[in-house]
Structure formats: C-alpha cells, structure tokens
C-alpha cells in the first residue's frame, strides 16, 4: 500500500502561481509513475501531468508551458509548479501514484481556486 498526502493548494489571482506537493509513504519501492489529476465541479477527473521513475514527463495540452512536474525519489515527493494560472484551472487537485502492477493510489486532494 502507498499513502499520499498533498499540500499547497489555495486561492490565487489569475496570472499567479502555486506549488503543490505530494509526499508518498508506505510501499514506496513499488511506485512507478507519479502524477497529478484535477476535477472541477460537474466535470470528470482529468490527467494534468505525470512523471516516470526515470524522469520522463507528460502534460495535458491545457497546461503545457505553464505547469512543471518534478519528482524527488530520495524523499518520495512529487511537486507541481503552476504558473500563469487561469480561472479554468480551478479544481480539486489529486496526487496519484501507480505501482509496477498498475495499482493506482490517490491522495485526499487539495483545492486550487483561481479568481479572475
């Protein structure tokens, strides 16, 4: 089992920045990819970005050039630096980890609200 705890959400004006952090514990040796999803009210949860254990990254088109995902395997954390935030980025953001058997683990979520 893997436990994930997010931090760093909040309220920010459009154009501002926030940094989300996620700390993993438990069976961390089994973690392959880590990433961030978000879910806005009335919408499906969507992938924002992920990073492999080797450092390969993927970003949703809507956040390319504005968000940066990073991972520190030594302390088992994954961060999401969010710049040039837009009101449409408002959502609950969820940390995700996937192990080598493709089991998925989720954090409790952290709210990001971007005011116009």
Q: Helix/strand/pairing class, anyone?
A: mainly beta
Shape by Cα distribution: globular
β-strand percent reads over 45%
Could you describe the largest sheet, including whether it forms a barrel? 7 strands, mixed
Relative helix content: under 10%
In total, how many beta strands? 11
Backbone CA Rg: 13 Å
Could you state the order of secondary-structure elements as H and E? EEEEEEEEEEE
Low-confidence runs:
none
Measured between the Cα atoms of the first and last residue, the distance is: 40 Å
Helical region count?
Answer: 0
On the 0 to 100 scale, the average pLDDT is: 95
Brief rundown of the structure:
This protein has 116 residues and is mostly beta strands.
Layout of strands and helices, then pairs:
Elements: E1 2-7, E2 10-13, E3 18-26, E4 31-39, E5 46-51, E6 57-59, E7 67-72, E8 77-82, E9 91-99, E10 104-106, E11 110-115
Parallel strand pairs: 2-11
Antiparallel strand pairs: 1-3, 3-8, 4-5, 4-9, 5-6, 7-8, 9-10, 9-11
């Amino acid at each position: 089992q893997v436990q994930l705890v997010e931090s760093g959400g909040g309220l920010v004006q459009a154009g501002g920045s926030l940094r989300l952090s996620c700390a993993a514990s438990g069976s961390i040796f089994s973690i392959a990819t880590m990433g961030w999803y978000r879910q806005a009210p009335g919408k499906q949860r969507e992938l924002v970005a992920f990073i492999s254990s080797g450092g390969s990254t993927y970003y949703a088109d809507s956040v390319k050039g504005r968000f940066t995902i990073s991972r520190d395997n030594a302390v088992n954390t994954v961060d999401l630096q969010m710049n040039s935030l837009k009101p449409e980025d408002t959502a609950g953001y969820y940390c995700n980890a996937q192990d080598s058997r493709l089991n998925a683990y989720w954090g409790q979520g952290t709210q990001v609200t971007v005011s116009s």
